[in-house]
Write a structure and sequence with these properties.
Blueprint lengths: L1 H21 L1 H6 L11 E7 L45 E7 H12 L9 E7 L5 E3 L9 H15 L18 E3 L2 E16 L6 H21 L2 E9 L3 E4 L1 H6 L8 H14 L6 E9 L6 H15 L6 E6 L7 H9 L6 E6 L5 H9 L4
Parallel strand pairs: 6-7, 6-9, 9-10, 10-11
Antiparallel strand pairs: 1-2, 3-6, 4-5, 7-8
């Protein structure tokens, strides 16, 4: 019975997985599920999946073939109903918990994302994961019976005490063998995501919501590629500030825009805390494309070319369409870095543009 239940549960999970892949674009463009996320799982509303339920007991109603009836007379329970008829099909929705790891796998399969080869690594001394070592001392809870027996047998044979007619093996203190783990150097890849967002007056609520949704999916994928990951949030108008996640997605300013302030703060973090020899660094910048002057744009290009790009895995710029944004900054970046694979730019015209933008950013496996 237990195996039958496990099989049915696995089948149900496959159905859910297939439905998520089928409607991935809808889930990506919607921010509903992001508000229902935990540390490891996300609740996703899945329509039109019903689990069968069996209810035992007598059926008090008649049915077809029971009792007398006249031709044309409706069966009990049919032909009459309360309320008014409607023309739309009813929607049956359940919420299913899906792990972030599984969600990342679905995203990777659907967008055909390559696995990331970490660049920055550092060695951390830690205990190995398997008990393959053997020692002659240790606690009784870790005693290796087979090795102890073998050692005692070898000793008794070598000393002439072994009797084949009475094969009794009695280990002594010197025969005892114990399991152990060895300390070893394990290379461990670390990654940091540096999110930067324009919060000037031209960036409205919808633009920030699109950034929030895209950042969630980028986080989900990168966390599936690295065991250790940190996230830093930078907001800027004419001045840049390091903030927490909630402030990043809800702060609204009304000042001008000076993009170089964010790039300077990003560079300071990279130099002071996230050395590229030990960290995989992923800066993401989101803006509507406005900058206060062409001179500041030239300074941004210089910062990218000579300071940021040489020390990060990949720099990504997402331009969110706004009623007040000029969209000029992406054009300037594309002109300044026409063939540089270390920088990726993307237009996010609306929520339907989030999924293609993610593929552009993560599709190179950098």
């Amino acid at each position: 019975m237990g195996r039958r239940i496990d099989s049915d549960h696995s089948r149900f999970r496959e159905i859910v997985r297939g439905r998520i892949k089928q409607d991935l674009k809808k889930y990506v463009s919607s921010g509903e599920m992001i508000g229902k996320q935990g540390d490891k799982y996300v609740s996703i509303p899945i329509p039109q999946i019903q689990l069968p339920k069996f209810r035992f007991g007598k059926n008090p109603k008649g049915g077809v073939g029971q009792g007398e009836g006249e031709p044309g007379k409706p069966v009990d329970g049919e032909g009459e109903a309360e309320g008014q008829a409607g023309e739309d099909e009813g929607q049956h929705v359940i919420e299913v918990d899906v792990s972030l790891e599984e969600l990342a796998a679905i995203l990777g399969e659907e967008l055909e994302l390559p696995r990331i080869e970490p660049k920055g690594k550092k060695n951390i001394t830690s205990l190995g994961g398997s008990w393959k070592g053997i020692r002659s001392v240790g606690p009784q809870s870790l005693r290796h019976f087979r090795r102890t027996y073998r050692q005692a047998l070898k000793r008794q044979i070598a000393s002439g005490l072994y009797d084949p007619d009475n094969p009794v093996i009695i280990p002594v203190r010197e025969d005892q063998r114990y399991k152990s783990r060895k300390e070893e150097q394990i290379p461990q890849a670390n990654a940091v995501i540096l999110y930067m967002m324009d919060v000037s007056g031209s960036m409205g609520r919808e633009q920030k919501e699109m950034v929030r949704i895209e950042a969630f999916w980028i986080d989900t994928w990168l966390r599936s590629q690295y065991k250790n990951i940190e996230v830093q949030y930078i907001v800027h108008d004419a001045v840049a500030h390091l903030v927490d996640q909630h402030t990043f997605f809800h702060l609204r300013e009304s000042g001008g825009t000076k993009i170089s302030s964010a790039y300077e703060l990003c560079l300071r973090l990279m130099r002071d805390k996230y050395n590229s020899q030990e960290w995989n660094v992923y800066p993401f910048h989101f803006s509507d494309g406005d900058n206060w002057s062409s001179r500041d744009t030239e300074y941004c290009v210089d910062l990218l070319k000579n300071a940021i790009l040489p020390h990060c895995n990949q720099f990504c710029y997402g331009q969110v369409k706004s009623a007040y944004g000029s969209g000029q900054f992406k054009k300037d970046l594309d002109q300044a870095f026409p063939n540089d694979e270390r920088i990726v730019t993307s237009d996010i015209l609306d929520r339907d543009g989030i999924l293609p933008s993610i593929k552009e950013f993560l599709g190179k496996g950098a």
